[in-house]
Design goal:
The protein is an alpha+beta fold and 275 residues long. 25% of the residues lie in helices and 29% in strands. The chain is built from 6 helices and 12 strands. The strands form 2 sheets. The protein has a 7-stranded mixed beta sheet, with helices on both faces. Bound molecules: biotin.
């Protein structure tokens, strides 16, 4: 949490001082303005070390999933991308995105007690607070057939954004920590907690598999047990979200009783009644 008196700008040294990690965030590339930290990470990925973080105060062309924009006003949020070089096959991508979403939840729990267990994951990896979008994750990669060359994982969190920082059309669907809690948050501290939590879950995954992350994603799911609408290439279907499968896929039951598994791909999911 923050007194509101702290610097409005990020301070990479303060972030590093609060890190307990071995590789994640050991190199931080801090930029004032960039088109998109994911774009910058992709431009630099071959040259930078595993665990490097690209961090920017503002993005002029921030990108979301499914080709959407990501509103990234200056000094208001966490707009960062992690460069990862896992020695794993390319199928690892959805798993990494789950780890990212779970890490955001843990970091917010640790940062502010009043947020404990309040941030939810709307499958596949939207971050939700009070049924509005607080953040999201955009994972991209370059891979050969069996080998992942690099993965860039972009994480966006609306931290100190005011209503006027969002375009009017997002007022009913987007939120920030400030809008929900009415005080400013220390973004350096939040970023450090996020990187600490990410590394903990990532190392656990590499050593022991995805179990711990899946447990967190199930506990924090905004959709399990709910009626949902699945949008696939312009057609809508109702279903009931039942569980996450072993690879983070969403298992749903269709009105016919048939159970199917959804992999993130191009499907959009809305909760029934969501605007
Ligand atoms: C989504 O929910 O649609 C994903 C949003 C991801 C936004 C982050 S902000 C940092 C990184 N750079 C980008 O251009 N996008 C991601």
């Amino acid at each position: 949490m923050s007194s509101g008196m702290s610097s409005p700008y990020l301070n990479p040294d303060r972030i590093k001082n609060a890190l307990r990690t071995k590789t994640i965030g050991r190199e931080i590339i801090y930029l004032d303005v960039i088109d998109s930290t994911n774009n910058e990470a992709k431009r630099r990925a071959d040259l930078e070390a595993d665990g490097t973080v690209i961090l920017s105060e503002q993005q002029t062309a921030g990108r979301g999933r499914l080709g959407r924009n990501w509103v990234s006003p200056r000094g208001k949020g966490i707009w960062l991308t992690l460069i990862l070089k896992p020695e794993r096959p390319p199928g690892i991508i959805p798993t990494l995105a789950l780890i990212g979403a779970a890490a955001v939840c843990l970091a917010l729990d640790k940062t502010d007690n009043s947020l404990r267990e309040k941030v939810k994951i709307k499958w596949p990896n939207d971050l939700w607070l009070k049924e509005k979008k607080l953040g999201g994750i955009l994972t991209e990669m370059q891979a050969e057939e069996t080998n992942t060359r690099w993965v860039v994982m972009g994480i966006g969190i609306n931290v100190n954004s005011q209503k006027s920082d969002f375009p009017e059309e997002l007022w009913s669907s987007a939120t920030s920590l400030y809008l929900e809690r009415k005080h400013f948050y220390d973004r350096d501290q939040l970023i450090a907690e996020l990187l600490n939590s990410f590394e903990e879950l990532y190392l656990n995954f590499l050593q022991a598999g995805i179990g711990r992350t899946l447990t967190i994603c199930r506990q924090r799911s905004a959709v399990i047990g709910k009626k949902v609408i699945l949008w696939d290439k312009g057609t809508a279907r109702e279903a009931e979200a039942l569980d996450l499968g072993p690879d983070g896929e969403l298992v749903v039951r269709l009105p016919s009783g048939e159970k199917i598994s959804l992999f993130s791909g191009e499907i959009t999911l809305r909760l029934k009644g969501e605007t």
